[in-house]
Specification:
331 residues; alpha+beta; binds 2,5-anhydro-1,6-di-O-phosphono-D-mannitol; binds magnesium ion; FBPase_N; FBPase_C_dom
Amino acid sequence: QADKLTPSIGITLDRFIKQKQDEFPFATGELSQLLRDIALAGKIIHWEVNRAGLANITGSYGNYNVQGEEQQKLDVVANVRFIRALRNGGEVCGIISEEEDSFIDTGNHQGKYVVAIDPLDGSSNIDVNVSIGTIFSIYRRVSPVGSPPIIEDFLQPGNRQVAAGYIVYGSSTMLVYTTGKGVNGFTYEQSIGEFILSHPSIKVPQEGKIYSCNEGNLLDFSAGVQHFIEQCREQRLSARYIGSLVADFHRNLLKGGIFLYPSTQKAPNGKLRLLFECNPMAFLMEQAGGMATDGKRRILDIEPKEIHQRTPFFVGPQNLMERLNQCFQQE
Ligand code: AHM
Ligand code: MG
């Protein structure tokens, strides 16, 4: 009777990570701890995001509030929070962030891992209360443990990711991640301060019915992409575009949709960044049964040349990705 009155709230992220770790007898627990550090940073940013309107941190960076304190833009705040959480955690020897020009040596030279983060993606949406997100990607370093990190630790192709995920600060906050064994989603329960498994083993619906792109750039798109969009319209697919990658991707992942950010006149190599945005999303989508390309190549096989490299990006369920591919071939 008591059980019925108090239904279980489900498995927490911490317990889930612990269970997964127990499946690997030789695991040292460092990756598990790293994932927990990211979740902790996510909780702090959730708190920052939710008080942003009142705390005068939606203003532009460099402004001062009435008390004469400098206002911090939320993406700067998120960057500081994340770097601090990862540095304090101790498992990470180096970090690259979309907000930083070059890589950060955390000083934890015994750490086996390096992390790429986009601390708060979709910054143009912050001031208008639209969902935003954090994207992360974890690699094992290639330099020897015990030494400072080197640039090659970060310039690894996406197929070397050990784990990747995002946190979406939406109508609820969710953390979605993969370690290469499927994708799981956790919803933040504020009252107890825990992420709870709410979306186990996410698979993208294979009959995608949504397409997402900035159609204002249509005339800049290649003939193949234009043709594909024409087909989407003919087939009465739904057009959905928030302009916030994490939110657009999250919806497409759960409901079945393709996201396109092709090259444009303004952004000849596409707008999105390979290491911070495309690789983690590509890893998640493949793990959920979909695909991700730059129009020619699998995203995860691209050898990065520099940290802030951009790429055209197409990601979604197989039916739509295959149709897009046919349009490219007819170009
Ligand atoms: P940001 O990293 O500067 O925030 O920009 C990335 C964002 C993505 O969230 C989104 O998919 C894209 O830019 C939208 O671009 P556009 O406004 O050109 O459609
Ligand atoms: Mg970004």
